[in-house]
Amino acid sequence: MSSATPVTASVPAPPRGGPALELLVHGVGGATPQDMLDDPRTVRITGDATAAVYRRPEDTDAEAHPERYVSEPIPEAYCWSNLTSGNGARALWLLLLPFMVVNLAHWTRPTSKGPARAVRFYGMLVRLVALSLTALLTAAACEVALDLTAWQCAGSATCSADSSWLGFLSPANGGWWAQPGRRLALAALVPTGLVGLLWYLSNRTWSAYESQRPPGTATADDAAGPAGTDSPADIRPALGRPGFWYGRRLVARLRAAHTSAGFLIIAAAVTGAAARHDRGAGVQALDVAGRALESVLAVTGLFVVAVVFRRGRSEKVIDNRIDHAVARWLPAVSFVQLALAMVYASWSRPGWVSHDTLPGDVAFRVIALAQGALVVALAVTAHLLHRRARHPRTAMRGLAGPAVALLACALGGVMTGGVAQQVADWLDGSGTPGVGEGPIAGPPVLLSWQASAIPVLLFLLLVPLAVLGARTWRTGRALTGPVEADYPGERPDDVRTRRIAGTRARAELTDAAPALIGILCTATLLLGAGAVAGAWVSGEVPAEAFNRAHPAVEAAAEVAQTLGSWLIGFGFLLFVTWGRRAYRDAAARRTIGILWDVGTFWPRAAHPFAPPCYAERAVPDLTWRMASWTANTGGRLVISGHSQGSVLAAAAVWQLAPATRRRVALLTYGSPLERLYGRWFPAYLGPGPLSALHRELDCWRNLWRHTDPIGGPVRIPAEEGKPEVDRDALKDPVVYGRTDTHPLPEPILGHSDYQADPAFAEERQGLLDRLSPGLPHQRAEGPVSPDSEEAQGLPDPKSL
């Protein structure tokens, strides 16, 4: 049973030393407070339905009775799962997957030592890649609504007759909407609504999730130095800077720029079609109006690019300002230009007939070339940054950022191409999507070439996957000896040993991900370049381009095109189906929530339409709770984080003031801090930042297992006066065979149930013993704010 309202206990002055508190933070996939506290009855202490802190009913007044908690700390659970997998509507975030992935590219940059210009240039390139994804999405929406539907199908008597809902647009009916310009203006409402929806979701999710101000426990002096750099001027690591978890100004600017870009692309599609007709129609007034409108759209587009180009994140201070001239007026001006474009296109043009296709193929080629050039430039920049600060554990030798950006572009291509292919197949009634055998010409040729590359890419991936499978099998065979050595004195059991060794070998597959992604990205870049070149040179779909080649080549091209078209359409339908299932099924929603747990930890620094960053709510929650509890009680606190919860815990500890941090210990288990985050995000959680956290934090201990596919050691060596962070790997299973105390076989736990191991309680108690007891504070009635001098460890003015 969970209480509906928070419970606030009346806390008297604590005894010398104060009580001890264990703040539990769960990992990916979510957990209930009942499971975390091992009690079916829980009470919400503070928070809301989205994220809250819970206790057992008998612990609500624990601070008033510290004598009850001499042998163990007060248990308290922070549940944040509803931030990523709450109501069914959040399943639709799956359609924003490319935006989420490109946002990760900003954070995967390598560590750098030297001038900050290269770091700023890297961030600028990522923001431009993100802008190209918005352009790709808008261009796809225009392709479906304007080209395929309003221009091709509605302009064809056969297609419009087959689609009765398009009858009022058909020229055969001679209605007001029969003119191509008016059909385009009406169809432009579809992509306009899509861009408006993205703007609304970005604005709404910012207010609901990310607008939580962090406590003022760090000063601007602590975070001096250029934003996002690793220069000596940066006294604190990036995650410890005051403005790291609050990027309101940047998100507002990017939201305005991307919204404006979407409106301008729609306006350009509508204006361009009408302006091309007017140049040969002999109506000078319309010709001049079209050229003027195209010029204004081009100038505004350059200004949008300049807005994205100019400014990145500011982390030295809480960036609470808003550039109203950009955030408010830029989308409004672009929307007005879109409205003018729709009025211009709707002007009467008797005799104008739509034929062939709109020049969407050129637009898709330009976007693909721009994305390829940006990814290559990003790779060169990342290599130069990594060369100045090499580390052998960095994923893909510093090229993780460009690889992630390329994957985002590939995902965007699959999703947008899938929409166009399926709509074209639906409208023309052809058995092969995109071939254009029906009454309409179909989608752009480039989409057919890109679809043809997908089967080739999947075939190429079979080789490294087969090699990886064989290596895993050999590793499992080689680990049988070490497994038996971990359980001396036990009677060997071949089946049991092979099962444990196989689990360890499969857990090591996580470390092979960089190599596999590197192969995937290289093949994707080469095949994508080949698709653009083939579409540009031939101007025909692959099956037609190779119809004069050897019959075997022609047959292979036709099979690749057909299979790829179905695969790209199936991929999009899979996204939609998975989203609909998650909307209705809580279990599927939790599965998608795991994806967001990993992908939306980082703030929106590149793409404003990405799903919201839950850490901008969770990290301030944890920081406020730790700072206020220690200030009010003067007690000791151990924050205990599992899996993704360990990353949140470490980020929250970084935000604490030094005086508060001295009364806080960090216990991580199943933690991806170094194994995943340290390798893929080295500038923020690499060896340097983690070592800095170890120096700033008096007490930190990490538990891990060889069978865990996610967690691992943090690899921080012991320093003078401080023990090593990592404990030796825990045995999994705890007991090899049957014993008097374990008469039934113990399971292989892998990534779960670390608290069931006796080492957990031992390490937790060791951390509390190492924390120096604090003295009670003389304070006025009521709780202490984390922004107060007392919470920041400053002396009380009354005592001076």
Automatic annotation (TrEMBL):
InterPro entries with a match to the protein in the record: AB_hydrolase_fold
Stretches for region Disordered: 211-234, 738-800
Keywords: Membrane, Transmembrane, Transmembrane helix
Signal peptide: none
Sequence ranges of Low complexity compositional bias: 214-234
Ranges annotated as spanning the membrane: 91-109, 121-141, 184-201, 256-276, 288-309, 329-347, 362-386, 398-420, 447-468, 515-539, 559-579
Name of this chain's protein: Integral membrane protein
